[in-house]
Structure formats: C-alpha cells, structure tokens
Amino acid sequence: MDLLRSTLQPLTHNLPxxxxxxxTSLLGPTCYQTLILDLNPTHTPCLTLLVSxxxxxxxxxxxxxxxxxxxxxxxxSRSSTGLSFPAYxxxxxxxxITLAYSARKGFPFSxxxxxxxxxxxxxxxxxxxxxxxxxxxxxxxxxxxxxGAVGVLMGGGVLGERELGWLQVGAGVLGVVSKVPQIWTVxxxxxxxxxxAFAVFxxxxxxxxxxxxxxxxxxxxxxxxxYLAGFVLNAVLAAQMVYYWNSPATASHAAEIGTRPEKIxxxxxxxxxxxxxxxxxxxxxxx
Length: 287
Description:
It is a single chain. The protein is mainly alpha-helical. The protein contains 13 helices and no strands. It has helices spanning 2-12, 18-27, 29-37, 44-63, 68-77, 85-105, 113-132, 136-154, 161-177, 179-189, 197-217, 221-243, 261-266. Helix 6 packs antiparallel against helix 9 (161-177), helix 7 (113-132) runs antiparallel to helix 8 and helix 10 (179-189) packs parallel to helix 12. The longest helix is centred in the last third of the chain and has 23 residues, at 221-243. 35% of the residues are buried.
C-alpha cells in the first residue's frame, strides 16, 4: 500500500488547476486532504461521503434523461393513453417546492439537483399530455401557472422560511400522492399505455439511492421521509409495469376473478359460452 501511495501521490499533488478546487468543493477540505492528497482509503466517514457524492452525481446525470424516453414516446405516438396529467401536475408541484426549499436552505446542489431537471421534463410532458388529449388551452394555462409558481417559490418576498417549511411538508405528501393517479390509471385501463419502463425503473433506483445520500448529507427529516414514501409507491408502479408487461389484451386482473388469462383473452365463459369482457393490459411490449 505504501508503494502504491508513493507512486500515486506525485500525481494527486499535481492535478490540473480546475480539479483541486472542484474536488475540494465536492468533498470538503478535510476529506480532500484525506482521500486525494494522503490517499487514505481507510477513513470511513470520508469514504462514505465519497460514495454518497458519487451516487448523487450519477443521479444528476440519470435525471437529465430519465423522462426523455417518455417524451419521445409521446411525440412519436401523439397519444397520451395510459398517462395521468394529475400525476404529472402533482409531481411537478412537489419537485418545485422541494427545489425552492433546498436551494433557500443552502443544501448541497448534489443532494437535490435532480428535482430541477425532472421538474422541467415533467412540465413539458404534462403540457403534451393535455395537448394530445385535445386540451391545448389547458396546456397554455398549465405553462403560465408553473412559471408563476417558480417566481413565487424562489423569491423571498412572498413566502418566508416558515411558510416554505410548511409547503415542504405538503410537498412530501404531494410527492407520494402524485404516484396514486398514475397507479390508478394503469389499474383502471388494464395496461401501461404510453408509460415508459425506463422512467419507472430509473425512478425506483433513484429514490432508493437518494434515501442513502440524504441520510449521509442532509440533516432534514422532511426530505428523508418524502424519499422513503416515494420509494414505496415507485415500487408499486414498477410492480405494475412488470405485471402488465406482455399480458393478453383482455386479461385484466385475471387472478382476482380466478380465471386463467388465456381463457379470458379467448373469450371463454363460465358455462354460457359468452366472452368475458373487460379492460386488460395491452400485448405491446412497454418501455
């Protein structure tokens, strides 16, 4: 270990000018000294911080594209089937409040930066969901409302710290509730429609990762509980995605009525020969 350290230290002590400053800002002076200059990988607190920061950066990178597949599916199909506008509206609201709360509290950007990136994508998708449902006037109102909300939340003239704290409590609830309309829409329609599997599973992984990074870097229970609750409902949505992945079109919730999906899809009755009708998951591969 000493041989490796003596070999690498001339490199770590002579990094290009932007890197020392960036790494010090990311890790803090103490952990920069310990991990980069001293090359001491046994310092547990600094090693944990490095893992947390690395995961946060991965979340930021992933969140910049997490909704792009969903956006492309919308644009290519010009259909909002299977998508719930209330879900996107609630999620956008929750993210904007969390963004304003975290920024005004001075939390490290790496612990909340994805909220800004995902909120922008949600904003665009929400407008398209309305538009492709023939409600372009509603999409325009949506746009104006979101822009106005950003101004109110980020500026300190209307909402003080106390009021913003209460809003963050509500944002945690909204973040959870925002998943419910989408879960209900999938169940009601018996399929995932234009819902993107890429987005769903990335949300699941991201919310689990964010629980860890929040516990390491942010001493705020409001933020932590929101991520915990969000992970549970993201898991439900991911389970729906798997359940409806490639099922017969009219075999919705076959297990609930004790009938094999193949028989429902073929129209087998229970003695009358009549086809059982019901909404079912589409047979098209999702995501």
